[in-house]
Amino acid sequence: MALSEQERDAVESVPKQLYIAGVWRDAGGARTLAVEDPSTEETLCEVADATIEDAMSALDAACAVQTQWALTPPRDRGEILRRAFEEMIERTEELAILMTLEMGKPLPESRAEIAYAAEYLRWYSEEAVRISGEYAVAANGASRMLTLKQPVGPCILITPWNFPMAMGTRKVGPAIAAGCTMVVKPAKQTPLCMLALTEILEHAGLPGGVCNVITSSSSGSVMAPLIADPRTRKLSFTGSTEVGRKLIAQASEKVLRVSMELGGNAPFIVFDDADLDAAVDGALLAKMRNIGEACTSANRFLVHESVASEFAQRLAQRMGEMTVGRGTTEGVTVGPLIDQAAVDKVAELVGDAVDRGAKILTGGAPVGDNGHFFAPTVLVDVAPDARVLAEEIFGPVAPITTFTTEEEAIARANDTEYGLVAYFFTRDLNRAMRVIEGLHTGMVGVNQGMVSNPGAPFGGVKQSGYGREGGREGIDEYLSLKYAAINL
Ligand code: NAP
Predict the structure, then answer these.
(1) Residue 102 annotated in active site
(2) Range of the domain at 221
(3) Which residue of 113, 308, 340, 405 is most buried, as measured by CB atoms within 10 A?
(4) Are both 238 and 339 inside the same structural domain?
(5) The whole model's pTM is what?
(6) Pocket of ligand 1 (CB under 6 A)
(7) pLDDT of residue 279
């Protein structure tokens, strides 16, 4: 399928090379990797495919300027981020088209992600000048205690494909603000957004060597030597729990500081006193944002038995009315999944649930011959042991189960190794406080189906990871605390 002129311009305008020490250059051996449009399965373009030597050069570049960058005035670091924010907002339409082409999400959602991603640049442009410490008189009055925060040092930042711009700015923004240098590696399926962000940072005046970006088809072998390198001080990863576990093991060799933003299995609880209109709207957002391919996606619906049937019918109707198609097409509300493996996994989970007695209210199968599309699906009568309730679906499938008491709802919500986010709907304030306190998650959505906000600390507990991104807390991931005992 031929790209429109606007789509072709968006792809052509992005650099396709590695960015090392402030220079765009080819990968060793001029190796390249193909970037696919998941809605057509056609190649959009080729980008550089870094070798281990390229990755090492990127780390060399980051280490070479770390001391100098840490000494750059915080205001100057902040102004670079501010200019990057402004350029990103100005280029919203072109960047949104690029995102939709490489990742698949509908254009309005890509525009929303560009705004969300840019906001991390603005937020951390403001936080760069608020890095502070403490001064205290020791208890015996004999000495003084000074605590200060300093940049942790060269960082490795690894991002996933599902929010290709926002997961980049959520790491790069605070790292730059804190005075760290970095090597960034985006997912091989969606390198274009990160390359566009790199160019924006270059335009904004970021000195060469501070942010080095490598794209690669062999992430494991290319990143392992960097994680093992004694000059690396920090690893920040967003991706699956499975890969996160491997990286934590690798990082343990050098006792590397890590932040892990991993997978989720979010419960979405609807109590009997909930405003059902609001709950259905919230469910649609929590389930269908990003085609269900979000770590924060509602993965399991727990609905009070007295309202379950009505809730399921209403959600099925709304999901059944959604328009599946290529994300750049006007009116499309559900784009393709990222690849065929994702479609196969979603189909397998639906098949397993049906084998165990679930009924399909809408959807239930892949759509079309080309592209990786799956129909929005609602399942009811889902057996407690169905895999769809335990595994990350990462697709447009809503499995609905019922409960009787508040205690049961909380216990079932917590019955997972994940702990990223939970959502619930109620009009009872006392219950709301009990449930917020009872849920074992890093984030809770109360009467709303989305929690992401650049001003708030995003992150999980249990096997959803540790560390926080966003908010005042996000910059601390890139700062080390030092205490000085001062004898007067
Ligand atoms: P993934 O397969 O874990 O990959 C994430 C990143 O890690 C990609 O850049 C990938 O590169 C790279 N990678 C894979 N294996 C690696 C290795 N051995 N060494 C170094 N890097 C490696 O995850 P994904 O499929 O891209 O993203 C979906 C997952 O991310 C879901 O589980 C989702 O819940 C999670 N996620 C979490 C958050 C959060 O904030 N908690 C946010 C968004 C997504 P290649 O793809 O190029 O191999």
Answers:
(1) no
(2) 5-263+464-485
(3) 113
(4) no
(5) 0.98
(6) 158-163, 167, 185-188, 219-220, 223, 238-240, 243, 246-247, 261-264, 295, 392, 420, 460, 464-465
(7) 98
Taking only the tens place, the pLDDT of each residue in 130-141 is 999 999 999 999
Which CATH number is 402's domain given? 3.40.309.10
**For the segment 240-266, what is each residue's pLDDT rounded down to a tens digit?**
999 999 999 999 999 999 999 999 999
Domain membership flag for residue 306: yes
Domain count, the chain: 2
Per-residue b or e along 442-473, where b marks 16 or more CB atoms closer than 10 Å to that residue's CB = bbbbbeebebbebebbbbbebbbbbbbbbbee
As a whole number, the mean pLDDT across the chain is 98
Residue 75 contacts residue 69 (beta carbons within 8 Å) = no
Rg of the chain (C-alpha set) = 23
Mean pLDDT of 421-442: 98
Asked whether residue 398 falls in the same domain as residue 366, the answer is yes
Beta bridge partners of 379: 360, 399
**DSSP bridge partners of 220:** none
Residue 424: in which H helix or E strand, if any?
strand 421-425
Query: Which residue has tokens 């997972």?
Result: 416
CB 397 within 8 A of CB 366: no
Same domain? For 132 and 256 the reply is: yes
